[in-house]
Amino acid sequence: MLSALFCFSACSTSKKAEQADSDFNYAVDQFADIQILRYQVPGFDKLSLKQKELIYYLNEAALQGRDIIYDQNCKHNLCIRRTMEAIYQYGQVDKTSKDWKEFETYLKRVWVSNGIHHHYATDKFVPGFSKDFFTKAVLSVNQDSLPLSDGETVQELLDKLAPIIFDPKIDAKRLNQTDGQDLILTSANNYYQGVTQKEAEDFYNALKDPKDNTPISYGLNSRLVKENGKVTEKVWKADALYGQAITKIIYWLEKASQVAENEKQAEIIQKLIEYYKTGDLKTFDDYSILWVEDLNSRVDFVNGFIETYGDPIGLKASWESIVNFKNEEATKRTETISNNAQWFEDHSPVAKEFKKEKVKGVTAKVINVSILAGDCYPTTPIGINLPNANWIRRDHGSKSVTIENITEAYDKATQGTGFNEEFMWSDVEVGLVEKYGFLTDNLHTDLHECLGHGSGKLLPGVDPDGLKSYGSTIEEARADLFGLYYLADQRMIDLKLVPNKEAYKAEYYKYLMNGLMTQLTRISPGNNIEESHMRNRALIARWVYEKATPSKAVEFRKKDGKTYVVINDYQKVRTLFGELLAEIQRIRSTGDYKAAQKLIETYAVKVDPILHKEILERYKALNLAPYKGFVNPVYTPEFDKNGKIKDVKVSYTEGYAEQHLRYSKQYKTLPTYN
Ligand code: ZN
Question: Residue 145 above 60 pLDDT?
Fold first, then answer.
C-alpha cells in the first residue's frame, strides 16, 4: 500500500535532509496540470563502493521494467508512445505551430501517466492537436522509425491509432469505478481481455478456499483472458507474458545478488528471481516473508507486481520498482513510533474485538530513493507499506517507509507559491503550517504507513477482498485516521515526536482544507472523485465536517466572496476522527460491504460544482500545477582497467524529454503489442 502526497503547502521552515544541497535546482518543467521536479540523493556518495554497486544493479533492474507498466495500463500505449516519440524526434512538421506545442504537451503527459490516461483521474487525454496534423506528422517520418506490426502499412497504423487518440468514447477510462457498471468491461486497462466482471469474479472465487489461512494473492501476476470460450490466466513471468522484460530484470538482479550486503539479502534477491522465472505466487509469498524480515541491510528495494489500485476489482498488480537506502538520522523518528506500536494499538478508539492482541514486527524507516520506476515513475508515492498480503502482515509484520528525499523535493519546490495565503483562513493557520507543516506531514505519513496499515485485524472467515471496489478507499481511510487521531495525542509529545500541543493543528487544518476544498484542484469540472486516496480524504473531511456542523467545530466561512475552512474546536475534530476510525475499522474487520458503499457513495464521490468552480478559479490565478512528477538522477559506473566498477557517479542534469527518450531506447524490452 502506498500513500500519495497531499501536501500542496508552502512551508518556509523545513528540516534539512542529510547533506542536501541547498542551492539545488528542483524545478525542471511544467505543462498541463503537472510540474516536473528533480530530487537529490543525499548520502549516496558516502555509501561503500559495494553498496553503490548494488544500488547501480538494482537501479538497472528497475528501469528494465518500464515497458510493462505502459502495456498494463492500456494495450495501445506502447504503440502510441513509440509513434509519438518517432514524430517528436524525426517528424518533418512546423515546430512553431500551435499543433506542435499541443502535440509536445500530449507526449509529455503520456510520459507522466505511462500511457494515454491521466495518471490520477484515469480518464483519457483530450488531444489539443488536430487529426490532420497527426496524420501529416506520421507520414513525414521514415517508416523504419514507426512501430509497425508485421505487414502493417503506415496507413493501417494511422487508421488503428486515430480513433484511440481522438474518439473520446473509445477506452474512455483506464479504471472505471462507477457503482453499478461492469467495471472490467468499461475499464481500458490491459488486465483483462474479453471477460466480464462476473466471469472474473467467478473465476477467482472458485479458486479461493475460505478455510485457507495463508492464501496466495490470486490473480496478482497475470492477465485474465477468454480464449475459445474458456477463461484462463496468462502469467507474467520469464518464459511467458512480459518475458522479454522480466528476463532483463533477472539479468540485473543476478548481478545485484553477487554484491549483496549480506547472505540474507542475497537469498531474498535469489528468491525474487525464482519467482520471476516460475510465476509461482507461493514463491512470491516466500520472497515477501524473507523481504519483510530483512531489517539489517542498509540498501533495500521493491521490484515486482505489487499494488492493485489499477484493477477495478483489486486483484491485478501493476509493475513497479524503487531502490533505496536508509536515512539513518531520520529513521530514529520512525523507530520511536514502531517501538511503541503496541501501545498505539491498545489505546486506539477501535472496538477491542477488532484490535491486534499482539502487533507483529511493524518496522519503519526513513529512506532516500535512488531510482523510481514502473508505476512509481515519474509520479511517486511518499510512503510505502509492504507486503500487501494480509496473512503475511498478520504473521510476519510489514515494512513501512517514508521517502524523505521526495518529500524534501516537494516541500522545497512549493515554497513561496502563495498557495497557503490564498486558501487558508488567516495568518494563524498560515503560521502554524509554516512552523510545523513539514514535520507533521512527515509524521502523518509515518503513522499512516507504520501503524495505520498495520493496525487492526479481520474477524475469522472475513474475505480480505470482500469490500471489492471500496476496499482501497476504506483501507486508506483507516490508515489516515489512525495517524490523524494520534498526531494530537499527549503521547506524541512525551515521545518527543512533536514539540508541543499546537503542532498537530497544522496537519489537521491542512487535512480538512485539502479534503473539503483544495484537492478539488485535481479534478476537471463535471467529474467525480475517483482515485482512492482522494476519495479517502473527501470521505474523512466531509464526514467530520457534517458531524462538526451542529457545534460549529468546523465551518465554511466567506470573506470577499471566497470560501474558507475554519476550525473552531480542534479537540472536537480529534474526537470525530476517533469515532470515524472506530467505524471504518469495524467495516474492514467485518467486511461490511453495504456500510462501506454507503459511506463512500455519500461522502467521497460527488463534487459540489459551485465550490469546485470557485476553487479552480482561485487556483488558476496562482499558476501552479496540482501534480508533480520527477526525473531520476543518472548513475554512471566508472571501471578500473580490469573492468571492475571502481565508483558510481550520480548526476542531476538530465532533462525530462531527454530522459524519456533515452529510456525508450535503452530500456526497450517489449514488443509493441503483448
Ligand atoms: Zn496508505
Answer: yes
